[in-house]
Every structure is written in structure tokens, then in C-alpha cells.
Amino acid sequence: MVSELYKKMAEYVDSRADWMVENRRDFHKYAESGWHEVRTCSIIADFLTKLGVDELILGKDCFIAEDRMGLPDQEELDMVYERALEQGAVPEFAPFFKDGFTGVEAIIDTGKPGPVVGFRTDIDGLGVFEAQDDSHKPFREGFASVNPGEMQACGHDSHATIGMMTAETIMKYKDQLCGKFKFVFQPGEEGVRGARGMIGTGFFDDIDYMMAMHVMPLNKDFPDEDFWFQYKTCMANAKLDVYLYGKACHAAAPESGNNAMLAMAAIVQGIYGIPRASVGDARINVGQVIAGSGRNVVCDRVKMVMELRGLTAASLDYLEPYARRIIEHAAAMHGCTAEIRLMGATPAVVIDSPDFTDELVALANEIGFKALPAPEGTKPTSDDYAYMADRVIQHGGKSCYIFYRTEEAAPHHATTFDITNDKDMTKAVKIFLAAALKIVGK
Amino acid sequence: MVSELYKKMAEYVDSRADWMVENRRDFHKYAESGWHEVRTCSIIADFLTKLGVDELILGKDCFIAEDRMGLPDQEELDMVYERALEQGAVPEFAPFFKDGFTGVEAIIDTGKPGPVVGFRTDIDGLGVFEAQDDSHKPFREGFASVNPGEMQACGHDSHATIGMMTAETIMKYKDQLCGKFKFVFQPGEEGVRGARGMIGTGFFDDIDYMMAMHVMPLNKDFPDEDFWFQYKTCMANAKLDVYLYGKACHAAAPESGNNAMLAMAAIVQGIYGIPRASVGDARINVGQVIAGSGRNVVCDRVKMVMELRGLTAASLDYLEPYARRIIEHAAAMHGCTAEIRLMGATPAVVIDSPDFTDELVALANEIGFKALPAPEGTKPTSDDYAYMADRVIQHGGKSCYIFYRTEEAAPHHATTFDITNDKDMTKAVKIFLAAALKIVGK
Amino acid sequence: MVSELYKKMAEYVDSRADWMVENRRDFHKYAESGWHEVRTCSIIADFLTKLGVDELILGKDCFIAEDRMGLPDQEELDMVYERALEQGAVPEFAPFFKDGFTGVEAIIDTGKPGPVVGFRTDIDGLGVFEAQDDSHKPFREGFASVNPGEMQACGHDSHATIGMMTAETIMKYKDQLCGKFKFVFQPGEEGVRGARGMIGTGFFDDIDYMMAMHVMPLNKDFPDEDFWFQYKTCMANAKLDVYLYGKACHAAAPESGNNAMLAMAAIVQGIYGIPRASVGDARINVGQVIAGSGRNVVCDRVKMVMELRGLTAASLDYLEPYARRIIEHAAAMHGCTAEIRLMGATPAVVIDSPDFTDELVALANEIGFKALPAPEGTKPTSDDYAYMADRVIQHGGKSCYIFYRTEEAAPHHATTFDITNDKDMTKAVKIFLAAALKIVGK
Amino acid sequence: MVSELYKKMAEYVDSRADWMVENRRDFHKYAESGWHEVRTCSIIADFLTKLGVDELILGKDCFIAEDRMGLPDQEELDMVYERALEQGAVPEFAPFFKDGFTGVEAIIDTGKPGPVVGFRTDIDGLGVFEAQDDSHKPFREGFASVNPGEMQACGHDSHATIGMMTAETIMKYKDQLCGKFKFVFQPGEEGVRGARGMIGTGFFDDIDYMMAMHVMPLNKDFPDEDFWFQYKTCMANAKLDVYLYGKACHAAAPESGNNAMLAMAAIVQGIYGIPRASVGDARINVGQVIAGSGRNVVCDRVKMVMELRGLTAASLDYLEPYARRIIEHAAAMHGCTAEIRLMGATPAVVIDSPDFTDELVALANEIGFKALPAPEGTKPTSDDYAYMADRVIQHGGKSCYIFYRTEEAAPHHATTFDITNDKDMTKAVKIFLAAALKIVGK
After folding, report:
1. C269 CA to chain D: closest CA distance, Å?
2. N or C, which terminus of chain C has less Cβ within 10 Å?
3. From the CA of B269, how many Å to the nearest CA of chain D?
4. Whole-model pTM over 0.80
């Protein structure tokens, strides 16, 4: 039973496909990684303003400042702000997004009673150097990233565009709708740094149905579904950077120093060695270590980049303090000190309300798409949307995480990643709209 | 130029060879290990009393009680005291040696001016189960240890006897001598536990020339010297027992426990890994670990037996606090606590005054023995005589450590150790006497 | 719908309660731990012979010899064989059980077509010293273990008796039954050593319905169910003993040795540190380490007692080879060699067929007992019955693991464990019989 | 007894002080670190050619190619070759020094019988970014390094100049001399990479007296000696770079990877933990570790930069194979492979022949300088001149290592290092000349 309103909306979306492609590629070219998204945000804000949304919440107002995680230093923030201006940030809006406040929220209020529907799309790029050769379409066609070491390598350029087009379409048919529609354009999803800072403002507390969207490649085993739905519980996640401070000295007389290299080795062995417990499965990874200076100098500085994941909240609650205890004491063993910085985190929460998700699967098929639950073994994306889903569910709402599937030129995060047929963004907009109509009874 | 007095003394010693053998074998049969030597001490005290030495210092008066190290617990001390009485301890003297005060000191004062000469002989057995079969002479001839797990496996039974006979001979010729002669019968040399407790009483402070004696086997490369002289600097030494206390629980749910096994592994790796420093060479050994109970129980109890040695005092001063810091923090890493017990120690000190030792080497050859400096590589015996030598030298005296060499049935500490020709004890007495005569100018 | 036959059988069982108590206590008094159960087996064999079961399979015929795990050494086996004879083993049967072949299997064949029903009861005691004081009923009443360090501390004495009485009752009513009944009296369940050796003979391959029984205490939260049914998947389990062989030498010159202590520490840290994988949750425990000899001797011998568990077969398949690789290379790092002995193992298998178990829960309630699925968190008993269950299920049969619940004087494995009301064994026999009747349609 | 010839030579040297300063500063400005010294060598070669030395050995002919250590990769070598040409390398000579053959040797043969005297001066800069501010004289006066990350921060620019001026003076007075004079301009002393490759050609085998020169700062405790003489035994030294190769994968499923991070930690703990042995004191330092890529990627690549030192050859002979064994097996523990590259090495050898050195100390004082043996605790400079000294001594010659002392602006290797009064180079030339005269009897 496809509603007439849906049909009109879908047609409208198709008519805007070229704009979507163009907008996506613009974001792709001026890729901004986490907390850098000044230009991106300014364009979104300008766009939403021009649409005439009922409420626009920009920058600082989207965040509890101290809940943000993994911010770059001020120098870097200043530098990218300047760059954003040079690269076409909308001057009226750019200042809202200075200093790591790169979020946009919008509300379309029909004025008629009805449910509150939320859409979350993330907007940030990744710390990847995009391939610069002709075999890579974005380069060949001139929209490869011009920002070295920043790349839209996980499709968030498409997500942002999908959010914008969803808003545009809802605005267009606003008078035929009821309820409220809330849009979140989230920074810093990579590294799960951005969401936590956004949930404390109250914005999410009245949302009845919340949806997030992510691109997902077609593959050999599952070549043709349009959508997957996750039905997932997120692994809890703590991303720690550890800095060890010892004392350097000549290696011929190490008694005058404090050896941070030994502390580091004890930490690696210690935290991997935390006994597996019955509180839930977990993962531990020390992904990176940079330690020491010269060959014949006792190492005095170490940076360790690590990640703890727990299948349950209890699992991370066991792991994280244990790891912190190990880090402190391993440092102290060798007369060093340790500084631990929490760079990102996700709670272990349900991000898909099963009944809501069941309905959306059915709906997707009903309107002519092929949709399935995500197959067993779909990479557990530790998306910090979990914070938002949890907030909504804790306040009595429901949540669903949707993958729109399309051909990709290379795996996520690869330097040659691209969305081959970027017009497929339209189907993501359509499922958002269909869901919204169903929720508000149209 | 062998003096007449020496000749008479030497003859007298030879005439007492059978008694020496008998006495040695009696001590061998009733072997008493460190701080158990109640029977041994009571017999020595009785013997010296009968000789009529001028001063006898017994038990508590030989020690600064709290400086003793590595004492057994009270229950064990009580038990061995009872055993000593049953095995023929001299009842008048035994009570002096209760509760871990198993030392005897004696002074023979000629009343004439002259130097003070000290003799140190140790008296304790080892924690070894003596071989109980007919191929082992002590067993065959009925003087193998009757105390299970205690054995005179390093020849201290002979040392004690040598000390006694030296005293007897000096008493016999006392009127032809001058100066003073001081005798120390030291407990607990094994594990270097006994000497430290004896040096604080002042007994050593006026000694001008101090000598210690140890048996040393003949060997293929050096088949025939009667004596070796050490010329040695002792390695500093700290013997630590470490107890780790965690919390046991079922291995299926280790989060309810505290894993002392992991703490132990971190300690082993940590302390071996203390960086080699420029403060002097060192040695580290974790000799024994007893950890845990059942296979599926999280380990909550660990005993570690370790030893730190430094070629210099500075080296041990670097190692020991570092090791203690590692132990504490490695325990804390896993929520465990550590208790560290100092079971024995030796300072890094010179134990041979080179000029005095040179004289004794010459003297030994002069009176017809074959004597040499100990060859390079003679096992560094970490004898806690070092405490005494250091005390004497600090107060202006000189020290020498002498090995008397004779055939041994098996290596030191072996269950089949024996001094094959135990009449060779006489030569040890003779070198003591010759040295004494030379020192006092007779 | 309780059948008449069941009622008669249940009455008969009640009439034999005193014998059951007496037999249980006899087994309790002459407790025999894993692979020692010569006396126990001989009594069971004699009992079954007297019953006139149709087939009796004894000792060697019950096993694939090389599949047995965790056998004591021959000297111990010889010693306990002699002891069994002295303690009243039935002389005609004892020889069957020499040398670690302490199993009994029996078949009652009604000669009429019908399903094959299997009963498994284990018979071994534990390595525990039973409390020897009057507050402990078995001691007070004279049936505490007379075998030091062996105790029926987990109720297997009752299991064996239940198996015997089930056989007796079935024999008594054999002519009213159809199908076949197979009984397994399994040794060495503690340490999961005995079952693996029994499954290769074909005995289990035709069993349609297999049941195992274990005692389980009443507790505060669940004070009154008669039975719990597990519905469980067993954790895969590998019990490894690791022996490290280095080379001892004096700690002052460690270059002449090979330090097995360091290898041990690297193993502990290495295997706990195996990265948590996505193949299933797991557990790792190094429960015991005995390492080294003297303080100043480089450690040359280590025994490590460890256990690896995987929630899935894949998990153990990942862990075990990884652990073995670590052990070998950690030994090699320090010039040592490692010997790894598999002391026990359980596969990760389903041990309860849900539909069969559902039926038994219903049945138990129907005949007047209170029965429930075991509550969440019932200790995962790593019972090596898993091998048998898996064998049966692989051959198309079904399996169920039943707990009969009764008051216990102390927790399983405690030195004061006892089954307070040992007449409650009758209810275990009754559920076995009721199940058998239901299965064969009577 | 200062000879007339010496006086004339000394005057000549003084007259050339300005040239020396200019030349030193030119080398300083165009600093070339180890194996980069193309420009430096070409200028030296040109200079010596113009002097008319009797034999000039350039580039490849100075080396056994495969004995060189720690070479940069070819790309780097090519790049610095181009740079050298751009920065004024002498075009006729530059090609000799391509591809890491940056050494020059020269022979002045008087044609008259007499001893063979060798002079070694090293020429390389360090991997240091020179301070670029006006408080730093070289910057202020325009001779700070123009090569980023390369700096003459240890005075080798002065050494090279000293060698050149020594040759010039000897050439000038050649007809008044006898014997032969050999000059070695050595690359890559920093990191002890260059000397080993030069000793296999036979050049050193006939040298009777060999001298090396190094600058050494005046300091508070020793404010005014002109020269120190080392009298030193060099610590044996092995500089290893270790590359670990594992397999990267997502940290959520580490079973598909091989974790090189864990291997690294085991190596750090393992090699620091090598037991201290009785073969000589040692040092171990892991100075640098670069490991891994992303936080949630299992680490597959590690670079470790380490150094092993032994006070004796036996000590390094013990340490190095032990460390290699640990590295290999620690890698294998985690399914990784290890590649070990020897980046530099020094043997444990005597570098000062005591009698020759005694003579030079006396001589220095005789000709009006203040000279002493280097005080206890002079930093053990692990100069790979040790290879040359050893070669000379093994062939019956003698060696001496001389420090010329002068004020320095900052410690060796600091970014603000400078030789404040660079005319003091003249005294280094004078002691070389005085020694040469004494050796050849003039």
C-alpha cells in the first residue's frame, strides 16, 4: 500500500538526483575530518536556512562543550577554520562552527499533532590521503579531496546530502504532514568522538522514532538488496591514548633515567593479559605505539593508541578500570608517570528497536525495495550513534539503523573508496521519507 | 723459620686428630640447620667452659636480636629445641640457645699485651636430605644425619671442630702467648642469615686480625695445594622472599578474583628486566616460584624466592629499591598485595686485606704447606663473614678468608657430600695457630 | 498420567532406600579418585553380574586405551590396585580394572523392539582430604574416607548407587519393558579425563536417548525444586600441564644455564595475552606453577597447570594452537624445551537436546516432582559427559543432563561435603525410571 | 726538547689558522651525515690532489663494500648525491663517492725508511636539525647547516680540517722527514657504521703508530688542559634495527591477523630480561619503537631500534645471540616474522696502547701544552675507530686516541653545538705533528 504522498515525494527526490550528486561531490572535494567540518556545516546551515526550516540550532548550541571527545588542538582548529573560509565556507555561518563546534540541528514543525521523527546523518571525513591518480574516479573527474590527509572515505558526504534532501522534501510537502521532524548533522563519527557531546542538550529527548543511515557495499554473497537493517547491540567502546613520561639519559648509564619503554611493554602485555571474564566478551587492541628517540637514549616518551571494546556494558566496566590500573602501575614500576586521555567512547546499547525495525523492513519491501536484516557477521560498526539511540530509547522512543546498499569502488577507509553510482543516494532519501510517512500515518 | 712453639702446638693437634674426627661426626649425625643449632652450641659451650676460657658469651648476648635474618617461626624453633634436648644437648647450656640465639663467642685473654686475633667458624647444616645408602660413608659408618632434611653438607661440622681445637690448643699454651684470642661460632651462614646479627655487640671492634676458614675440595686442575687464600671482594647480596596475596575464584568468572599469577609473571619479567646500570655489575635470580592451587582456580597465593647481587654496594642500592618498586606495582596492577621479606643479606665488602693475606700465604708455605691465592674463578662464596670482615676492617683491623683443601666425596650441598679424610681438619687448625703465633710474634 | 508400572517401580525403589544409603556410604568410605576406582568398579561389576544383566563390559573393553587422559603413573596405579584388594575389592573382578581401566558398562536387553536408553553415572572421588572431625557426619558415623587425599566430595558415590539401583529396578521389571537399556559407570570425571576414552568403542552409537545425573544442592533462592534440567552448551575445554626443561647452574654465572623461570613468565604473560577473538568468548587460567629449586640456582624445571576454555569449538580451536605456539617459542627464547601434556578435555557441544529435555521437565512435574530448567548462571559444570552426549547426538540420538537436588552439608569439593539426606537418591532413580518408561512407551 | 722542525711546522700551522676556520665552517654549513659525505669527500680529495700526496685512495677502493653498515637506501643516496653537486661538490671527484662510498685515504711517502704513522679523522655530521636563530653563532654568521636534519653537531667538521692541515704541513716539510704518513677520512662514525668497512683493504696493516682525534669541551672541573688521552678499552657494541612483520586486520576480529604489537612487547621484556651474566658487564637499550597504524587495526608492522653493549667481547658474544633468539621466537609466538639488521657495531678492544699513550702525554707537556690522561668517567665514546685501532694492534702497531679540548657552545649533539674558538683546531694539528716527528725521530 504505497501512499500517493510517498509517490510524489519519491518523484521529487528523483528529480533532484543531479543536485545530490553535485553536492556530495563538493563535500567530497573539500573533505573535512572530525571537528574540522566548518565548511560542510556552513553549507548545510545555509541550505537549511534557505529551505526555511522552523528551527536551526548551530554550533555551540548543539553541544555540551565538555562532553565532546578527541578534539584537535587549538592551533589545528584555527588552521582548518581559515582553510574553510578559503575553500568557500559560507561566511555568515562559518563562525558558528569555530573551535570544534561543527554540528547542525534543524527542526521542521508541521504545527499539527503527531509523532516526532529524527534523522541522523554524519558529515565528517577520515584521516586518509585520497588516491591521486586517474584510475580513481574522484581524481579523474576533479572531485578528489584537496585537503591532504582528509578524505570522505566512508561515504559521509553522501549521508550529509541524504539528510539535506530529506529535509528539503519534507519542507516541500510540509503542509500535507503532521508531527515534527528533527535533523542531526553530526561531526566526528570516525573515532566515535562527536555524538556524546550532542545528547545532553535535550534535543533527542522528545524524539519518538529515530533513524540513522549508512552506506554499505553490495557484495558477492548479497548482490542485490537495497537495504539492510542492523538489529544490533553496539559493543561498548573506550578509545584511550596513553602518554608515558619517563626520564631520558644516556643508555650507558640508565640509572639516571626512567625507562618508559619498559613501562610500555609491561602495559601492552598487561592489558592484553587481563583475564577473560564472565561479564561478556570483549576486544582489546593496542593499535599504535610511538616510543623513544635515539638508539642510545633511554626512552622517556611514549604514546600508545588503544581501544577497549565490550560486548556488554559490564564487560567494558570490568576492562577499563583494570586497564587503567595496569597503566598506572606499570608506569610506576619504572618510575614513570602515565596520562590517559579518553579519545572516544560508545556505550553498549541497543541501537535498533526490534519491532520498529521489523516494520521498516516490511515497509521497504512494500514500496518496492529489497530489504533484509543485516546478515550475521556484518562488521560491527562502532557507530557513536549509539549514544543517540540510547538517549531516545531511554526516553521511550524507538531507533533503527539503516544501511543503503550500493556499489563501492573500494572498501570503506581505502584511499580509493568511492560510491560508484552516487545517484543511489536517492533510495536512502526515499526510505527515510517512507518511514517518516508511515510513522506519522500518511 | 718455624717456631718451636708452633711445632709443639702442631704435634698436639695431631695427637687430637681422633677426637676431632669423632666430634665432627657427632655434629654431622645431629645436623642442625640455621637457627636450629641448639645442641651444637650447647656442646661447644660446654667444651669451652671445660677448657676454662676467660670469657664465654652465649646466645642472646652474642646478638642484636632484631638484626638476625631469616629466622624460622616460633613453632619450628620450639620443636627443634625439644629435639636438641632429646638428642643430647647439654642441659645446662641448651636454654641459652632457645628462640634462635644459637651463637657462641669466647675470649682467651693471655693477660699480656699484644694484638687481638679473631677466629670465625660457622656451625650450621643445610636443608638437604642426606643420602641414606651404603655407598655413602656417613650412612655406612653410622654418622649420617638423623634429622630429616638437615645435613652438614658443606663441612661446617668440620669448621666448628676446627674452632674448638684451635681454642683448646691456645688454652694449652696460653702462658707462652700474649694478646687476646677471640672465637666466634656462627649460626646460619647458609642463606647468609647469621652474621649480621652478631656484629652490633662490639665483640669485633677491637680485633686486629680476623680469620675465617672454609673447606674446599681438591680438584683435577689443582690437585695438591693445602690452602687457598681468597683475596676477595664480596658481592652485595639481598635474598628476598616475596609473598603475593590475591583473591581466588573460579576460573570461569575471574572477575571476582585477583590474579596473583599474572602479578608474579610481571614481577619475574620486571625484575630481570631492570636495566643494566653503570653502577656496577650485578646478578638477579628468581630461584623458585610456588603459585596457585587448582587448575581452574584463579591463583591467589604466590611465594617467590629470589636473590639480588651487586658487585658494588651502589649496584645493590640501585637494584633492590627498583625490584621492590616493581614488586609492589606489579601486585597492584592485578589488585594484589605483596609482602617482601628480607631473608638474608651480605654487604659488598673486601673480606681479605691483601697485605695480611700475602703474609699468610708466605707463612703457610714456610711451615711446610703448599698454599696459593685462590685461582681466578673460584666460586664466589657469598659468605656473610663479610659483615664481620667489614666490621673489623672499619675499625682498623685486617681480615683473611682461608680455604683448607681436602678430598670431598661429592660437591658442596650434595646429598652425598662428605670430607673423605676428615683428619685433614688438623691442617686447618695448624694454619690458624701458625697465623696466631706470627701475629703475636711467637 | 502416571503409569502403573512407574508406580510399582517407584515403590520398589523406596523399599531399597536403606540399601542405597549403605552402598553410597561404603563407596564414600573407600573413596577412589580418577583411574583409582578398582574397588568401586569391582563391586559394581559383581552387583550387575548378580542382577543378571544381559551384557557386561569391563575394564579394557570399555576403552580405547590411548584416548584416556590424565592417567597416574604406573607406580601409583599399582599401589592403588593393592589397596583396593586390601579394602575389599571383589577378587574375581578387580583384575579387569588394573592399570587405569576402571570403567563398567552393562546392557539390559528386553529382547523386544524399542528404543535404546542410556544412563551415565560417574563414580570417581576427588583429590581432597576429607574432614576428620565430629562435626562432619561421615566422620562421626564412620564412613569418612579412609584413603588420605581421596574423597567423594562431589557426590559421585550417590551417582554410582543411582546407576546401580536403576539397573536393579529395570531388571526386576524387564519383562514388562521393551527396548534396550545401557548403563555406563564412568571413571575420572573430575578433571574431565575419563569420558573421552569410552566413546570410541561403539557403545554409544546406537543409543537413542541418553541421560546423565548429577547432585545439586538446594539453595536459598531455589529452595524446593526436585530437579533442574540444564539445556546447556558445554564450554570446550583443554587442560594442559606444561613442563619446561632448562638447565640449572649457579645464579652467579647464569650464562651456563637456561632459565626456565623466564620462559615460564613469558608463557603466563603470553597466553593470557592472546588477543580476544571474534570466534567466541573464552577463558584462560594458569592455575598453578611450581618452578625452580634453590634461591641461587638458575631454575631448570617448571610445571605449569593450566586450562583453556572456549564457549564455542572455534574459540578453543583458536586458543589452543596459539597457546601451544607461545609455550614452545617462549621456551625456545630462553634455550629451554617444553613438553605439553593434555590432561583433560571437553568439546564444546550441546549436551541437552531441547525437545527431549522439555519432555523430561514436563514428565517430572507430571509424576509429582517439582522440576525446572536450571536457572541462568548455574555453574557451567565442565562435565566430560559432553563427549558422550555429542557421540549420541552425532549418531542421531538425544541427550539430557539432569540435576537431582537435595540438601548438602557443604559446597561441592569442600572437605566437609556430604549429602545430608542421602535417601533422596531415590528420586534420582525415579526420574531415570520415569524417563525410561516414557521413552519406551510404558 | 722541542725540535726546530716542530717549531717551524707549528708556526706554519698558525699561519693557516684562518684557512682552517673557513674550511671548517664550509663543512659545517654543508653538513652531510653518515654515507652522505659526497661533497665533503670531493673537497678533501681535491685538496689532497692539489697537495700532491703520493697516493690517493678514493671511494670504493677504501672499502670492502659489504662490510659497510647502516647504509641509507638507494633513493636517499641518489638524492644526497644530487644535492652534493648542487652545493659545490668538486665535479671530478664526486662520482667516486656515489652510492655510499664516502671515504678518502691518502699516503705521503717520504721515500726514506722509517715508521708508518696513521692519522684518522672522521668527517660526518649527525641527524640533528641545527638551531636557526641569532643566539646561535653559526646561524648568525651564516654557516649554520643548510641541510635540514643534518648538522655537524659533534665537531667532525673540525676533525676533517685537522686531518687536511696535518697532511698539508707534512707535505710542506716532507723532504725533512722519513717514513710514511697515512691519512684516513672516515665517514659514518656516528652510529659506528663507517670504520668496519674500511679495515679489510689492508690499508691499516702496516701502520706502526695510529692516532685518532676528537674534540672535547673544557669544563668546570677540568678547565684548562689542552689534551686528554683516553687509555681506554672500548665497550663492544651491536646496534640492531628489528622489523616485525605480522598481519593487519580489524581489531574486532583479531584472529585473522598476527599481532606484531604483542611480539614487540615480548621482545622488549625479553631482551631487557636476559640474565646478567658473569662474562662481563653490559648495557641493553631499546631506544625507539614505532609500531602499528590505526587504533582499531591489529598492528602488523613494528620497527625497533636497539643497542647492545658489552664491557667485554664475551659479554656481547653472550648478549647478541640471546637477543636474536628472543626476537625470533617472540615474533614466532604471535605468528610474526622478524628481520634483524645490524646497523652498527664496535668490537670490545683496547684503543690506546698504554706505552705509546704515556709517551704522547709526556710529549704534549714537553712542547708546552697541558695534557693528562682522560679523567675517570669520561663518557665512553663508542667510536668505531676501535676497528682501526684493533687492526693496527693486531698487526703489531700501536694506537692512541686523543681529545683536543676547547670551549664548546653546547654539549655534543645539541642543536646549538659549536666550537667557540675554532682556531683551537691548530693545537690538534700541532699534537699530531709533534707525535709524528717524535715517532720518526725528528
Report:
1. 9
2. N
3. 6
4. no
